[in-house]
Amino acid sequence: AQTVTQSQPEMSVQEAETVTLSCTYDTSESDYYLFWYKQPPSRQMILVIRQEAYKQQNATENRFSVNFQKAAKSFSLKISDSQLGDAAMYFCAYTEGGTGTASKLTFGTGTRLQVTL
Amino acid sequence: NAGVTQTPKFRILKIGQSMTLQCTQDMNHNYMYWYRQDPGMGLKLIYYSVGAGITDKGEVPNGYNVSRSTTEDFPLRLELAAPSQTSVYFCASSRRQGANYGYTFGSGTRLTVV
User: What is the pLDDT of residue A21?
Assistant: First the structure.
């Protein structure tokens, strides 16, 4: 079974600084996708960024970027120019690709990010 | 667009009571999922469905049942509620190959069993 591990229960960053959240995963599949989701206090799950395993280029969305190391099975999230609104719980998630799968998501345990002035 | 609608948002149950958490989506998504999120933890898959009339167990199905009689609705039934079922429950949906097209989550139901 696939597993997703987030080893940092909590992280803190000052406003305007950069922070990196870590995620490792375990799979024997070659076709898969990785995600970072943000969960603010409202509980809403918000997609931050998505990476396809067969793409070597790291995904980027504005201030958010990933460092995808396929051989090491590592998928970290970098948040640049941190803002107060970035404070939230961040979840790393995995799903298999291809037809015939149910696209089930497997989540890590999350990292709570605090942003300070 | 309503997206994925979950009701109720909050509920307190007594041990041994039963209830149904409702989930409806209006995007004609084939795939639907139920997850639970325990305090300080990630989401764990309870049940999922790849289409009307088809359901399957996820990682933590014990104590729950589901049905999928229509594409839109995917209710989750709790029989004989136990304190271990205190959690936040999320319903989600996606098109086929959700990784390509994205997932839509409901806003969650916070359930407390006392």
Answer: 98
